[in-house]
Specification:
Layout: H1 15-25, H2 34-47, E1 51-55, H3 58-68, E2 76-80, H4 85-93, E3 97-101, H5 112-125, E4 131-135, H6 144-153, E5 158-161, E6 169-170, E7 173-174, E8 181-185, E9 198-202, H7 205-215, H8 238-248, H9 251-269, E10 275-276, E11 284-285, E12 291-295, H10 298-310, E13 316-317, E14 333-334, H11 338-345, E15 346-349, H12 357-372
Parallel strand pairs: 2-3, 2-4, 3-14, 4-5, 5-8
Antiparallel strand pairs: 1-9, 6-7, 6-11, 8-9, 10-12, 12-15, 13-15
Helix pairs in contact: 1-8, 2-8, 3-4, 3-7, 10-12
Bound molecules: pyridoxal-5'-phosphate.
Length: about 375
């Protein structure tokens, strides 16, 4: 059997070990310590965010962001439908109601037009939503000028789920820094990893300070254990943060490598009639976490996916929209068919920063031979 080619696998440099060894040597083996502080500083320096709180997962960061914006039972939260379930689950942890908003064609992210329609509709017939939770899918920035204008006009705060978008930027600004609160994920499949982890960033240091407080069991200032709020155990460990410190040193290299994968696939496949790529609009800088293609039909998509699988090459359909998920289909959705169509015809290709030229050539070869066999 040929060597397995993964969709997106961890890519370490070895420098991570230095920070992890330091943690062992100094016995900082706890959910706090110098690596946690250092990692938060690294993220602030990289994104120019004023503050950061390192957490146990991107999901935990979203949960805390909702809590900090006051989202409670039966509150409504406007949310991208075209995403991973981890975006939506924390809305339900709060027993709040997700209101799904479809994508637009240029970036596949939340449609400003449908967002405004949804807000007007909710206000007219129900109540004003508490927050907007938007996703920069596959590391492609959303249409931020339009979204921010709506957030401001209706005074609804914005959370950016930038779990897939660290290293991406919009008109020179890092994703995650444009809304009230931004979140990152450092899961093993993301562009950089801490083996599992996440972070919250904000230009309002108060949000991150409160997130760290809630993430460490909401312990009041007292010599004994005193609590006046419900707390969580959501802090990042000093070991994980050590891996993160090493990874931050190479984040720009990782983005460059992923963008190079995209360019390679495009060069090799763009002339094929039944395959299309998503381009960056002017001023948008995508990290190309995953390279995605849109085929002409569900059948073509499946045929390519199965052909790759036979060759021990991992590929995957695009995210199945949340309004189609059995667990979420009862919730209101403002939909025009865009994400459903992309889900039907789209495929994520192997995109790791550690893929070799010959890996990429193998993928392209099997896609081309599959398409030519029809
Ligand atoms: C990965 C991911 C998350 C969740 O992050 P975890 O660190 O795995 O909890 C949330 N939203 C999106 C869009 C993601 O891709």
């Amino acid at each position: 059997m040929n060597k397995k080619i993964y969709l997106s696998s961890p890519h370490l440099t070895g420098e991570e070990q230095k920070y992890v060894d330091e943690a062992f040597d100094t016995n900082w083996v706890a959910p706090l310590g110098p690596n946690v502080d250092g990692f938060e500083q690294d993220i602030c320096n990289y994104t120019s965010a004023k503050a950061c709180s390192a957490l146990s997962a991107g999901t935990a960061a979203i949960h805390l962001a909702l809590i900090l914006l006051g989202v409670e039972e039966n509150d409504e939260v406007l949310c991208s439908t075209f995403t991973f379930s981890a975006t939506v689950n924390p809305i339900r942890y709060q027993k709040a109601i997700p209101i799904f908003v479809d994508s637009e064609r240029d970036t596949w992210n939340m449609s400003p037009k449908l967002l405004e329609e949804a807000i007007n509709d909710r206000i007219a017939y129900h109540k004003k939503p508490k927050a907007i939770l938007l996703v920069h899918l596959y590391g492609m920035p959303s249409k931020m000028d339009e979204i921010l204008a709506i957030s401001k006009k209706y005074e609804i705060p914005l959370i950016e789920d930038a779990a897939e978008a660290i290293g991406a930027s919009y008109k020179g600004k890092a994703m995650g820094t444009l809304g009230e609160i931004g979140i990152f994920s450092f899961n093993g499949n993301k562009i950089i990893t801490t083996s599992g982890g996440g972070a919250m960033i904000s230009n309002d240091p108060d949000y991150c300070k409160k997130a760290t407080f809630l993430a460490t069991q909401a312990r009041d200032a007292a010599p004994h254990y005193q609590h006046s709020q419900i707390g969580y155990n959501y802090r990042m460990s000093n070991i994980a943060a050590g891996i993160g410190r090493g990874q931050m040193e190479v984040l720009d290299d990782r983005v460059a490598a992923r963008r190079k994968n995209f360019e390679f696939y495009k060069k090799e496949l763009a002339s094929i009639k039944n395959i299309k790529f998503i381009e960056e609009p002017e001023g948008f800088y995508a990290n190309r976490w995953l390279t995605t293609i849109i085929t002409n039909s569900y059948e073509t998509r499946e045929s390519i996916r199965l052909a790759l699988e036979k060759e021990n090459i991992e590929s995957r359909p695009l995210w199945k929209p949340m309004h189609l998920q059995p667990i979420f289909q009862e919730f209101p959705a403002y939909i025009d068919g865009t994400s459903e169509d992309l889900f039907q015809r789209g495929l994520c290709l192997p995109s790791g920063s550690n893929l070799t030229e010959s890996d990429l050539e193998r993928v392209v070869f099997h896609i081309k031979s599959n398409l030519l066999s029809h």
